[in-house]
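[step 3/7] fold_predict: job queued, chain A
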Amino acid sequence: MTMPPEEPRQPAGGGVPPDAGSRLWVNETLAAAARDAGDPQRVPGALCEACLRLLPVNGCSVSISGGKGVSVTWCASDRVAARLAEMQYTVGDGPCHTALDRGVPVLAADLGQGDDARRWPIFASEAVALGVRAVFSLPLGVSGAAIGTLDLYNERVGGLTEPDMRTALWVRDAVTYALVGLQSRDPAGGEDGVASWMTASEADHTEVYQAVGMVMVQLDVDPEQALDRMRGRAYAEGRTVSQLARDVLARRLRFRQESGGCGGHGGIRPGPAHGW
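[step 4/7] structure written:
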């Protein structure tokens, strides 16, 4: 995952200037950001930074789906954005999961109260504790197949205006194009190492899959139940699923059938922020 040092952020305020609000302008801005990054390892972070210049939000992240229930953070503009992404993966719930499942944008304008707070009570409680009040999740993909999400957050309550929402969809399309294009490149082809960070993402996926397999054997359960148990344990310990998976693979952690544990993520209850 690519993430720059944490710095105080202020939303752009107006998003794309009215005279520049075109799909072509958005595409050129993101393309220039990727080109100017220089080091291929910095491309994901550069694209996240460009998203912030285009949209009136405090932060953003891009997560790649590795199959049902498994995802990895590709890039994040700041530590809060990274924590939001990891949190949703760990608890198995939140706007990005809904966006992936339904293949449509999911907009949560007020996580502090009302329908949004009740829709994802665990995620909403943790997000508000981080100072986040609104989250917008847009599925990435082509031909109706979601390959990940573009997630935006704001520290203030409120939705996106119609022009900013239109721009957000153009940004989503451009990020999808970048992901598909970079995934299709052959890492062995030596294209300046552009796919090396994709290999790292795939490694994270593989670790979780392997750990799920081990927990399945230990508990004699199906893959979904095994992942739920891992999520519950990770949440209870204030860790991410990826961190827990590494302990399972290193045999530092073993799940036992007689253990009370947390069960699936359905057993998780909102509580104090875990400091993601």
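[step 5/7] annotate
Residues 234 and 240 are 6 Å apart (CA to CA).
Confidence is low (pLDDT under 50) at residues 4-10, 16-20, 186-198, 259-273.
exit 0
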